[in-house]
Structure to design on (233 residues):
């Protein structure tokens, strides 16, 4: 196939190679991870420069992010950009220790990947954190424990069990199964309680009337005494 027969603009731009001028970033956000280069993040309290990537051989490689590079390709229709991560990779063949039961991964940071293959596409990587062993023995100084980080948009929320509710009742009760005597008894009890409440309420009204009568009689006696005093005068 000749160059004139290629119609895909992306393939044409890749064949022409990227521009010589590139842009570099000291931090970059992709795949819901915030990545820092080693130079930018080495003195920060958090580690954001650990990266893993799975190779075509099925082996997962771990490394340290050194540079974030933006390449630009010029096509006939538009301009295309892509992001590369340049990393220092550890030796995943001779410098990796995986626990058989718990699948914990330890990386020997003194053993480097023997081949020169530092570049990966940014969308291919995730993020890990390397932690040194808090041991006074020298046998663990060369090993880091690897911890996989979760994306910033992922949250662990406890899921409540769905409430149990029977949607269909195969044996609904019929009218013949209802005990009419029990319903009559319940009705009599309710009516009796209501009558007792009414009697108590009526009793309270009579007591108020008696109190009003006493107050009226007292006022008449006082009035007679006052009238008697005026007659004496």
């Amino acid at each position: 196939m000749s160059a004139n027969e290629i119609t895909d603009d992306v393939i044409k731009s890749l064949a022409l190679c990227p521009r010589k001028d590139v842009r570099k970033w000291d931090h970059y956000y992709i795949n819901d991870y915030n990545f820092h280069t080693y130079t930018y993040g080495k003195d920060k309290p958090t580690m954001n420069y650990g990266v893993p990537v799975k190779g075509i051989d099925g082996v997962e490689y771990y490394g340290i992010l050194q540079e974030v590079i933006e390449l630009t390709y010029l096509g006939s229709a538009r301009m295309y950009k892509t992001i590369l991560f340049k990393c220092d990779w550890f030796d995943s063949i001779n410098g990796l220790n995986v626990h058989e039961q718990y699948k914990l991964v330890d990386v020997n940071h003194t053993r480097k990947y023997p081949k020169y293959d530092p570049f990966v596409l940014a969308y291919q990587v995730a993020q890990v954190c390397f932690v040194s062993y808090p041991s006074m023995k020298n046998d663990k100084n060369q090993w880091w424990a690897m911890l996989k980080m979760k994306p910033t948009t992922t949250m662990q929320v406890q899921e409540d069990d769905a409430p149990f509710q029977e949607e269909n009742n195969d044996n609904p009760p019929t009218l013949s199964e209802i005990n009419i005597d029990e319903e009559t008894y319940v009705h009599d009890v309710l009516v009796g309680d209501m009558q007792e409440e009414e009697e108590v309420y009526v009793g309270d009204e009579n007591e108020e009337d008696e109190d009003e009568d006493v107050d009226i009689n007292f006022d008449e006696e006082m009035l007679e005494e006052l009238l008697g005093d005026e007659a004496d005068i």
Summary: The chain has a mean pLDDT of 78.
